[in-house]
Write a structure and sequence with these properties.
Shape: globular
Protein name: Bifunctional 3-deoxy-7-phosphoheptulonate synthase/chorismate mutase
CATH superfamily: Aldolase class I
Strand order of the largest sheet: 3-4-5-6-7-8-9-10
Strand content: 15-25%
CATH class: Alpha Beta
Order of helices and strands: EEEHEHEHEHEHEHEHHEH
Structural class: alpha/beta
Number of helices: 9
Bound molecules: phosphoenolpyruvate, manganese (II) ion
Distance between the termini: 32 Å
CATH architecture: Alpha-Beta Barrel
Radius of gyration: 17 Å
Keywords: Transferase
Mean pLDDT: 97
Low-confidence stretches: none
Organism: Deinococcus malanensis
């Protein structure tokens, strides 16, 4: 179902007027790694709104490497994220990690995110396939392109055609980046499927100094959008404090991309 052999024309999502894919200008999904407080979300949403960002991200359920790391605010985070996004006329995207949470996350989020670590969680893929919400599907840490596209197929096969593919870097032997951004996967996914494909530069690079060149490269190979983490005070963030942009950093980032964004 994801194949271009089945559907030749690009799938263009229209999520409350925000259009993603096809010939639409690339979109930006931005916001903090984790939802931490009302003040943090308010500041971030207001700033990003002033920069034209229409999709606000923020994790309420966090897939942390250590069980002792900050695990997210859960339902309180969902309530906060969705209300702040709504106040600013933005869509809210957040990760769902457990089949038992799909219903509540779908109640608050406009887009459900499947994280890299859950790309192979077929029960969860089926469950979001039955939810009436668009799904952003990250590529697994060590997933082949074929496995990634089959994961999308799980969602479509349950009747949900609103899937956005997201390349976020894969594990290689390289240590100077957190992951290795696989641009050929972006070009291939665009070629093989009709789905929108976006690139998460933050989790790919794991370092701020590469975000601009990687985002430029992603747009050059045809990505339909960029996903980037932005936090009012990255140094004190409860997760991913090495890689989130502060507001000044985001201003530079968006200025550097503006000529490639074809924003109306
Ligand atoms: C995230 O976007 O919050 C995240 C945890 O990313 P990934 O699943 O790509 O590691
Ligand atoms: Mn993060």
């Amino acid at each position: 179902l994801v194949s271009r052999k089945v559907k030749q024309d690009d799938t263009v999502l229209d999520i409350d007027g925000v259009r993603i894919g096809g010939n639409e200008p690339p979109i930006i999904i931005a916001g903090p790694c984790s939802i931490e407080s009302e003040e943090q979300m308010e500041l971030t949403a207001a700033f990003l709104k002033s920069k034209g960002v229409k999709i606000l991200r923020g994790g309420a359920y966090k897939p942390r490497t250590s069980p002792y790391g900050f695990q997210g605010m859960g339902v309180d985070g969902l309530i906060l994220g969705s209300s702040v996004a709504r106040e600013h006329g933005q869509l809210f995207i957040t990760e769902v990690m457990d089949t038992r949470d799909v219903e509540v996350v779908a109640e608050y989020a406009d887009i459900l995110q499947i994280g890299a670590r859950n790309m192979h969680n077929f029960a969860l893929l089926r469950e979001v396939g039955r939810a009436r919400r668009p799904v952003l599907l990250k590529r697994g840490l060590s997933a082949t392109i074929e496995e990634w596209l089959y994961a999308a197929e799980y969602i479509l096969s349950e009747g949900n055609n609103e899937v956005i593919l997201c390349e976020r870097g894969i594990r290689t032997y390289e240590k100077w980046t957190r992951n290795t951004l696989d641009l050929s996967a972006v070009a291939l996914a665009k070629q093989e499927t009709h789905l929108p494909v976006i690139v998460d530069v933050t989790h790919a690079a794991g370092r701020r100094d590469l975000l601009i060149p990687l985002a430029r490269a992603a747009l050059a190979v045809g990505a339909d959008g960029i996903h980037v983490e932005v936090h009012p005070s990255p140094a004190t963030a409860l997760s991913d404090n090495e890689q989130q942009l502060d507001f000044a950093g985001y201003e530079q980032f968006s200025a550097a991309l503006s000529s490639l964004m074809r924003v109306a």
